Amino acid sequence: MIRYLTAGESHGPGLTLILEGCPAGLAIDFDEINYELSRRQKGYGRGGRMKIERDKVIPQSGIRHGKTLGTPISFLINNRDWENWQDVMHSVNPMPDDLTGQKAKLAYDNTRPRPGHADLSGAIKFHHDDLRNVLERASARETAAKVALGAIAKQFLGQFGIEFGSHVVRIGSVELEGYDLSLSEIRERSEKSEVRCVDPATEEKMVAVIREAIVKKDSLGGVYEVLVDGLPVGLGGYSQADVRLDGKLAAAVMSIPSVKGVEVGMGFETARRHGSEVHDQIYYDKDGAKHSSKNKGGFYRKTNNAGGLEGGMTNGERLVIRAANKPISTLYQPLDTVDIKTKEAAVAIVERTDNCVTPAHCVVAEAVIALTLFDVFLDKFGHDNMDDIQAAWQRHIDFEI
Predict the structure, then answer these.
(1) 216 SS3 class
(2) Distance between CA atoms of residues 20 and 375, nearest Å
(3) What are the chain's domains?
(4) Which of 19, 15, 22, 23 lies closest to 3, judged by CA?
């Protein structure tokens, strides 16, 4: 139902975003989009780039007087750092012959690929002998575009009582030992935390291990959790692989740079349990007093090991998705590599980088999950205008078996 594209290099003039398929009549809060962008820039362990950029969207099309037209929406996000990179990254002008110092290093010292990065594979794929032709687009700078587009999806879903939250459950060896909090409490605590952790004592330990990695000129990954409440039953499908919502969501989250694992609900733990310990038993309360999610018709569960998905579809319970991101591949104490021109042993190039991006990953994952849910929601309830969608959604909510 929706398609989106992003374009732009990390140190180019900016990012271009296009969203096609958004229904007409959706009110857009630009302050909320920019707030989401600011959330992405926060977190202990972020690098110097976050002190430079002040990401804000510049609307170009598809919105008039604050409401969507049903036509493609496009935005620009300017890169403030472009001012320092014009000689190296200009689209038209040739590279100046008189570059010296840091600019010369950025222009010419790009032949030593980083282990764990797209550098070498991208150079071989596109026949580049300058790794900057790869690393600029492979950079996670592109995730700013996804967050802006995801903010539109979240505003749409919010019209139907669908709410998001996220938090970090592990950084390095430090893990959150469990929690029992409402979604609003998770949001409130994680937004106040430097590492988006809901427990202050665990937060201190997470900050400490990141600080230790910074001293060692190393990096750390982690695990985070995205939660979505209020989803109606039946989003997604079971008849073909390409309509299964669990597959769509896993693909979306895995598309975020440095993600190496995704699980839903109990996830990998289900492989160690008996079926009687895993599956969420079904109960019925005709008055609906024991359930709160939309369109469950009195059916409810006492557990949510499935994480809100059964058979490729939403089941009305909270959606629970966890993802693991590996440590960033740029290290200030670089790893061994080979120079692609000389074929001699070398150490990897060093780009300005972060030490830990797990807290920021929460925000990006919320965005790509929102875009995926936006798509399947429109698939079920229509996609032309908000009035028709609202009516179709209400009919579904009112239905009982």
Answers:
(1) coil
(2) 11
(3) 3-398 (3.60.150.10)
(4) 19
What are the beta bridge partners of residue 356?
A: 220
Q: Is the dihedral of CA 308, 314, 318, 319 positive or negative?
A: positive
| DSSP letter for each residue of 282-335 | EEE-TT-TT--STT-TTEEES--TTTTEETTEE-SSPEEEEEEEPPPS--SSPP
List pLDDT tens digits, range 275-320. Answer: 999 999 999 987 765 665 678 888 999 999 999 999 999 999 999 9
In this structure, what DSSP letter does residue 3 have? E
What are the structure tokens assigned to 218, written together?
Answer: 């190393």
Task: Answer for the pair 220, 213: CB distance below 8 angstroms, yes or no.
Answer: yes
Tokens of 330: 């740029």
User: How many whole angstroms separate alpha carbon 336 and alpha carbon 345?
Assistant: 7
Q: How far apart are CA 74 and CA 90, in angstroms?
A: 23
- Distance in angstroms (rounded) separating the CA atoms of residues 196 and 168: 6
Model confidence over 311-347: pLDDT tens digits?
A: 999 999 999 999 999 999 999 999 999 999 999 999 9
Measured CA to CA, the distance from residue 360 to residue 42 in angstroms comes to: 7
For residue 19, the SS3 value is: strand
CA diameter of the chain: 78
Under 8 Å between Cβ of 368 and 150: yes
Asked if 166 and 189 touch (Cβ cutoff 8 Å), the reply is no
Cα distance between residue 100 and residue 264, in whole Å? 51
What are the E-state strand segments in 83-181?
Answer: 163-171, 174-175
In one-letter notation, the amino acid at residue 362 is C
Q: Are strands 14-20 and 73-78 parallel, antiparallel or unpaired?
A: antiparallel
Give the helix, strand, coil percentages of the chain, each rounded to 5.
40, 20, 40
Burial zone of 178 (CB within 10 Å; 0-12 exposed, 13-18 middle, 19+ buried): exposed
d(CA 58, CA 139): 21
Is pTM beyond 0.85 here?
A: yes
Per-residue buried b or exposed e for 124-135, using 16+ beta carbons within 10 Å of the residue's own CB: eeeeeeebbbbb
